[in-house]
Amino acid sequence: MRIRELTIPGAWEVTPQLHADDRGVFHESFRAAAFEEAVGRRFDLRQVNISTSAAGVLRGIHYTENPPGQAKYVTCVRGAFLDVVVDLRRDYPTFGRWDSVVIDDVARKSVFLSEGLGHALVSLEDNSTVSYLCSLEYSPELNRDLDAFDPELAINWPTIDRNGEPLTYIRSGKDAAAPRLADMRLLH
């Protein structure tokens, strides 16, 4: 397992070692000891979520009020996603910056994001499925959203899907009406 920190402190890309034979492919998606050694902390699992999306579905940017914040360990089990991490910690020099990783059912990478980071996914193929391991149980009073198309963030969203076809974005009403980073600054 290879674990590297992204350009956002507290966000990590995890690349497993794949073991393939005539039966298929096996890999460890998470190993606590390796994770803790690389990241320098424990990951306390409180909830697991599974989400399946059509190509073009964009979920997020979602985050949890910090404290307590919510850490996530995100793995694509089928299909492909662009996983985007946004730093929403006001006291960090990387506040408002983002990084991304393609997670799919080929390389089997995962993304870990610490408390205080925002998260978004765009599905690059129909029926793509992602699993989120979460450090905090669902707490609607702490959940927040940020506009994924905020020009201040300038996220480089993909324009084509995994098969080279044009992507049409599909967002929930809540995500489409989410505030921008400038609005977030006004609240605090």
Q: How far is the first residue's CA from the last residue's CA?
A: 39 Å
Instruction: Look at the structure and give the CATH class.
Output: Mainly Beta
Spatial strand sequence of the major β-sheet: 1-2-10-7-12-5
State the total count of DSSP E strands: 13
Q: What is the chain-wise order of helices and strands?
A: EEEEHEEEEEEEEEHH
Overall number of structural domains: 1
What structural class is derived from the secondary structure elements? mainly beta
Can you tell me the CATH architecture?
Answer: Sandwich
Number of helices: 3
Q: Work out the helicity level.
A: 10-25%
Average residue-wise pLDDT: 96
Beta content comes to 35-45%
**CATH 4th-level superfamily:** Jelly Rolls
Which consecutive residue ranges, at least 5 long each, have pLDDT under 50? none
Return the CATH topology.
Jelly Rolls
Shape: globular
Question: What can you tell me about this protein's structure?
Answer:
By secondary structure, the protein is mainly beta. The chain has a single domain, classed as Jelly Rolls (Sandwich), CATH 2.60.120. It is 10% helix and 38% strand. It is built from three helices and 13 strands; from the N terminus they run ββββαβββββββββαα. It has helices at 32-39, 173-176, 181-187, and strands at 2-5, 11-15, 19-21, 24-26, 47-53, 58-64, 72-78, 80-87, 98-104, 110-113, 117-123, 128-134, 143-145. The strands form three sheets. A six-stranded antiparallel β-sheet has the order 1-2-10-7-12-5, covered by helices on one side. It has a five-stranded antiparallel β-sheet with strand order 9-8-11-6-13, with no helix packed on it. Strands 3-4 form a two-stranded antiparallel sheet. Strand 3 (19-21) and strand 4 (24-26) form a beta hairpin. The chain is globular, with a radius of gyration of 16 Å. The mean pLDDT is 96.
